Amino acid sequence: MMKMKTMIGLSMTGLVAVTLLASCGAKKKESASTTKLPDPTYKVDKSKPAWQSDKSKDNTLTWYINAEWWNKKYGTDLITKQVKKDLNLDIKFVVGDDTKLNTYFASGDIPDIVTVLDPTTEVARTANKWALPLQELANKYDPYFYEVAREDTLNWYKLSDGKTYGYPNYSNTEADFKSGKVPARDAFVIRQDVLDAIGPQDFKTPQGFINAMKAIKDKFPDLVPFGFNDFSGGTSSLGDVVQDMLGVPMTNKDNTYYDRNLDEDYITWLKAFRQVHADGNISDDSFSDNNDAFKEKMTSGKYATMMVAANVNQGNSLQTWLSANPNKGYIAIDGIQSTKGKTPTLSQAGLSGWMINYISQKTKNPAKAIQVFEYLLSDYGQILTNFGIEGDTFNYIDGNKEAVSWTDAAAKIQSDDLTKWQKDYRIGEFIQFGHDRFKSYNKASYVKAVWQQQAWGQKYLTPQFKMENISPEPGTQEARALSAITTKWQTTLVSLIRAKDTAEFDKTLATFEQFQKDNKIKEINVTRDKNIKLNMKKLGEK
Length: 542
Hints:
542 residues; alpha/beta; D-Maltodextrin-Binding Protein, domain 2; disordered N terminus
């Protein structure tokens, strides 16, 4: 889904001598509950999902999601109708922003379930003060939770009391990366017809890349030779995505933080991009375009080549172009390669995942709340939310429970009436407990336009668990300084590429380096180094 961020470390590193039931089914026991919880109204069976035993009626939960774009409707589409039926549960979804979330906590009137987008916030770091431990809830109401939750993920999110309060979506473990079921999402791509027309070109080296852009311009004067993701809110795909493509390390050999922005290999390529811009082969609009403008140009095939980040997020645009131009689709090729001989180390979501879900201490129905978690994490729940109902929207292929295909009727609706697909079916949207490995059951989980790009990048995916959540805690001087540095780098990167000559490039870079020194970069890196080591301890690394 989202790009792995090097974010703020959680204060959850003091592990205690408690263990979890492994997701593979090994049976271990957690410490006794310390929270006063009402007794279940059904017989608890560790070998059976609790929602199958709980026959209580008139259950209602309020679920706050800290994202205003979330679809609040419930019980009106194929997916949530089935959730409602299975769990005997009404859910009232409430959405909002940080201001609304803070209002809830200020009043003490916290919803039953709370979903936040960032594990580095104060809300997440202090979850032990307002949320219920998942282990205690599972022990009392639904021990089958341990059969579907990932042990690595639960351990990663433990706070200093040894308990886990939140569970994320798209939390990929080491095993997930090795399985081949985690899709690559970043690639250097080129229109197939452009590649065919210009003949063999060297896109791998800086000078070869410069020359290739000139060759494209000569053959296709109406196209923009080189495009990239928009710069709104970040460094486009010319920041960490290019660094990943070059295999720029994230740490020094002693596992201290490495400043990738100042890497020699990366700087060499930024100078090449500067020359491409000077040659008129990067449009100045690319620096001011928002995401909608970027997608519109993809939809119309305006770019001959692109450095694409999060191709799934651009899938509809890429697919629209491909559907209208079957022989002109964007394909991934080997381009923008290390001058030092390093292999690409492409990123994906790690253990931290993305959205994090919590059960509030204020909930009047903790049993049903943990059932929601177990239900959505289970194979059954994942199949439902990703593919719908067997025989209606999908079928298993040759009896293989890890391979599905759309029914003809569902495939037609998905292809011909996307609005109906989203409104009436809602397949693939209910993502709070989503996971990449289930999407791999159906190749059509992703649009055809990105299949080749995903396959190209698969061999380069490299987990970076030790780098997750390493920045200073919000509100500290170091955090404010890092925010200033990050903003400065965003504008600096644009200035470097638009520099009139190498002298201006070098001066701009030197100004940024001094800005870092003036804004506590040494102190920031001390915190980063500390958090890297804490992460390594959690991972069992030395």
